[in-house]
Amino acid sequence: MIPAPFEYVRPTTVEEAVQAVAEGGEDVKVMAGGQSLIPVMRLRLAAPETIVDLGGIAELRGVREEGDHLVIGAMTTHAEVVTDPLIAQHARLIAEATETVADRQTRRRGTFGGALAHADPAGDLAAVALALDAEMVIAGPSGRRTVPAREFFVDYLTTSLEEGEILVEIRVPKLSGDWGVRYEKFNRVAQAWSIVAVAAAVRREDGHIAEARIGLTNMGPTPLRASATEAALAGAPATADAVASAARSAAEGTSPSSDLNAQADYREHLVQVLTRRAVTAAAGL
Amino acid sequence: MTVTEDAATTQVPGPEKEVGKARKRKEDARLITGRTTWTDNMVLPGMLHLSVVRSPVAHARITGVDVSAAKESPGVVTVLTGRDLAEEQGSIPCAWPVTPDMKNPGHPSIAVDRVNHVGEAVAVIVARSRTAAADAVELVDVDYDLLPPVLDMEEAVREGADLVHDDLGTNTSYHFVFDAGEAGTGGDTEQAFADADVVVSRRFVNQRLIPAFMEPRSVVVQPQGDNFTMWSATQIPHVLRVMLAMVTGIPEHKLRVVAPDVGGGFGGKLQVNPEEILALLIARRLGKPVKWTETRSESLMTAHHGRDQVQFIDVAADREGNVKGLRVRLLADMGAYLRLITPGVPALGAFMFPGIYKFPAYRFECDGVFTNKVPTDAYRGAGRPEATFAVERIMDELAVELGMDPLELRRRNWIQSQEFPFTTVAGLEYDSGDYDAATQQALDLLGYSELREEQRRRRESNDPVQLGIGFSTFTEMCGLAPSRVLGSLSYGAGGWESASIRMLPTGKVEVVTGSTPHGQGHETAWSQLVADSLGVPFEDVEVLHGDTAVAPRGMDTYGSRSLVVGGTAVIKAADKVVAKARKVAAHLLEASEDDLEFSGGKFSVRGTPGSGLSIQEIALAVFAAHDYPEDVEPTIDADATFDPVNFSFPHGTHVCAMEVDTDTGFVKIRKYACVDDVGTIVNPLIVEGQVHGGLAQGIAQALYEEAVYDADGNLTTGTFVDYLVPSAADLPHFDTGNTVHVAPGNPIGAKGVGEAGCIASTPAVVNAALDAVRHLGVSDIRMPLTPERVWRAIHQGGDGGDRATAGSNAYGGAQTETTAGVSTPQSALGGDR
Ligand SMILES: Cc1cc2nc3c(=O)[nH]c(=O)nc-3n(C[C@H](O)[C@H](O)[C@H](O)COP(=O)(O)OP(=O)(O)OC[C@H]3O[C@@H](n4cnc5c(N)ncnc54)[C@H](O)[C@@H]3O)c2cc1C
């Protein structure tokens, strides 16, 4: 469990980091909390030539408000997310999902940005970012650009981050109105990744469900939205029956994999049950 | 030395008894903080480091090994292959030829021309640093000519199956039979089945498990002239020393083996490891100290596994529920080779299948089968959990068949308390106990009737979450083992244990034990025993162990033997110390030995208050040796060896209440209660700890753990992402209790507790899950009860079926090719974009 040799750089600003990545040679990796990167390096599944550690860049850390958005620095740790008052107020779904990530030790090191950039289909935060219509702010040699979550997650462990680019912050629209949220995670033991999970945010209006946003974890190589269920819920009465019937289409358009924990058909079943439960709870039923 | 003149002191009662006190373990501070002598903490001047290059394929001929690039790598001293070591490596020993015609293909420590499982050693890098050794592993180029892997036991025993070892002509290592009719311990089994009203037959799969001890294996060897000292993270320094001598030809008196503090084993370190042999041979060849410490990946993949049986079990009974016969046929996976007691594990289990029931007839047959997987061997319970699982599961199936309450069926057939000692159909003499009392207490702890009532309500309302209650009324054979019995089972060694007590001049006491702990708390328990026997303060006792130069005789720790056998040796040594001290005391007190009484650590002359000498004072007196009786030697130190006449038989009742979410298949233990009878309890805290840990492992077999191989023979569950070891967060609160029936076979009265929880819990948990969903048509679910299996069993029938053999998505699917030392084309792909 010893990684192959590598060069190590620890810049203190985003500009220096972009520079260091540009100069880092053929195979350069940025490191956030290292909770996904270090294990694959120790297993020698990855052997980068240079590591650019983002840990020294103060500006990448913390949560702030910008009008009707929250801005979460990429290097904000899971532990910080879980206890952040702004997130609790405006994006509680993120905190709820983050609480289910790994164990205390990992949450102290792992970061919000690292989890999104890693884009593990079994990871919990990508589906939440997708459900909340977050935007990724990316810095690269040619400046900054912003990518909506829908376009950010491209494939299995693949994002739209180009070579030389760094994820710097995540902009999350504040939920305004009567929103309820729920992250429903299904796994076998407490510290494990999701077999399937469902992130739901539901806005109620006059006994109806005005709007539902549902993100799915581990139902394909990327996080997905349960669009058919969302459509069925829009304007539906806030009743258990309506939710149950809408949840039946949660697996539409998904392409889950088969692995030790679950074969695809079982995941397709689970996602319906979990969607029903998540939406029911989020709608306060 | 001053003898107190104060008359009052002689009246003071001796210190309160240590035995029975919930002492915190004196060794824990250093073990928990790691500030201790773990083998990997050892650094010797000039020490070289080994990394093992391992086979990425399950079955192949090696057609070439190119080490030239690895030899050029910075810091590398040399690279050795199987060819280089072929002449001197001998074979990993197998101490248990269970039948005279058992086939043993021999077990090289490093493959020479063939590999038989993924992870088998093919080359060893010797380098100046651990990192340099690890870096060179990928540079070794091995050519393999692939052979078909043999992975499924039921296919492996068919005519014309591919063979693991062609030269043996079969995949069957042995066929072991115990027939109670032939042994004279029971009736004719075939007849019993022919005459029975009811026969229930099942096929159970007792899956392969990985011991997953916390401290990885590690070994350091230091050559000194023609002597060698080996430090190893082993359970068995004494056995290892003998075996190293036999395998390598290095004379035993030139070998010293030290097991320093060892961080867990569960049987997984009851082994002579290939890497121990390799480290010794390489240290000898280079004349330099060497160290090897495994990675976690290597540990999961190459340290021996446990369990892995396909069990065909038939039970015969009359309509009233009286059992008439039991028939067991096992296929037991040996893996690719026979290690230390690989073949003996299922054979030991043979005697436990009848459990606590009065079967009049019993026949057991077992085929040991070779496959291209890592060998199996001892794992917590070793044969007994497998047997207990099968009998406790089939009793439930019989109850269903008869329409009887499962507890009522058990009651009707179990040995009654007044029937002890009871000789079972397997020929074992059960020592003591009361199954009814333990069961009653367990039901009370659980709150049985309320839960049954809730179960009824949930069933009636068709609740998506159903409730079930499962039992396991078990016993086990512990205190391994009477040497004569081991002899009759063809085991290669005895089962005695040794102890010495040294009385130091300042009155402190050194206890030397041959049963080497690896986390059990021997230092605390032995101190409690000695404090009582010698009447010295607990703090004045130091327990020494694990070093063959300090503790020269021993049989080490496994099979819940330490307290029962090793503790008894300590008590016997203490008795001898007191007897020797008595002579000296009589001399010094100018009294007759018969007039002395010994209590609270002090000899005093009967009827003479105020007189007296403590045993600690006598220790100083014999050290000075100015004044001692003429006919005795000036020491009160003593040795003792104890060989038990019989096993001890802890028993207990475990009851599990299980919630099953029928929508998802998720199972959750609602409540778990168990009452164990482990005889006398020396330290309730240690007993509770052993029970909790055992429960965790037994529940883990039922719900979480399974070593899964893919169709090519790769270990899919090669990391803790995929091999799920539960943590405290996944386990319920345990309601534990005890009944105490003193073991008649040893002066402590202890029966052993190391394996009880692990043996008992697995069937209770599975029975509980089945009880929750049986009305939905489910009669079996394969372990571990993954949510998917439970869901499939409920909604699609069957036992939940095979699992997919791809690892989980997490970590970028870093499962099969994740092993340091195994570099395959796929390695480059996984994990990272
Ligand atoms: C035991 C354990 C259990 C876990 N369980 C869960 C779980 O249940 N659910 C879950 O969601 N996750 C889980 N994780 C993963 C954890 O959430 C990680 O923190 C996360 O996946 C990666 O975050 P990190 O900050 O550690 O990133 P790193 O490991 O440092 O980086 C991961 C990848 O992202 C890239 N990267 C990181 N930051 C940036 C950036 N700013 N810009 C561009 N690229 C970047 C890196 O180059 C690397 O390829 C677990 C991890 C462990 C060790």
TrEMBL record, chain A:
Gene3D superfamilies: 3.30.465.10, CO dehydrogenase flavoprotein, C-terminal domain, Uridine Diphospho-n-acetylenolpyruvylglucosamine Reductase, domain 2. GO terms for molecular function: FAD binding; oxidoreductase activity. Keywords: FAD, Flavoprotein, Oxidoreductase. This is Carbon-monoxide dehydrogenase medium subunit. Residues 1-177 form the FAD-binding PCMH-type domain. SMART domains: CO_deh_flav_C. Pfam families: CO_deh_flav_C, FAD_binding_5. The keyword Transmembrane does not apply. The keyword Oxidoreductase applies. InterPro entries: CO_DH_flav_C, CO_DH_flav_C_dom_sf, Diverse_Substr_Oxidored, FAD-bd_PCMH, FAD-bd_PCMH-like_sf, FAD-bd_PCMH_sub1, FAD-bd_PCMH_sub2, Mopterin_DH_FAD-bd. It comes from Geodermatophilus dictyosporus.
Automatic annotation (TrEMBL), chain B:
SUPFAM superfamilies: CO dehydrogenase molybdoprotein N-domain-like (SSF54665), Molybdenum cofactor-binding domain (SSF56003). Keywords: Molybdenum, Oxidoreductase. Residues 1-27, 795-833 are annotated as: Disordered. Residues 33-148 form the Aldehyde oxidase/xanthine dehydrogenase a/b hammerhead domain. Its cofactor is Mo-molybdopterin cytosine dinucleotide. Residues 15-27 have a biased composition (Basic and acidic residues). Residues 1-12, 815-827 have a biased composition (Polar residues). One of its GO terms (molecular function) is oxidoreductase activity. The keyword Disulfide bond does not apply. InterPro entries: Ald_Oxase/Xan_DH_a/b, Ald_Oxase/Xan_DH_a/b_sf, Ald_Oxase/xanthine_DH-like, AldOxase/xan_DH_MoCoBD1, AldOxase/xan_DH_MoCoBD2, AldOxase/xan_DH_Mopterin-bd_sf. Pfam families: Ald_Xan_dh_C, MoCoBD_1, MoCoBD_2. This is Xanthine dehydrogenase, molybdenum binding subunit apoprotein. It comes from Geodermatophilus dictyosporus.
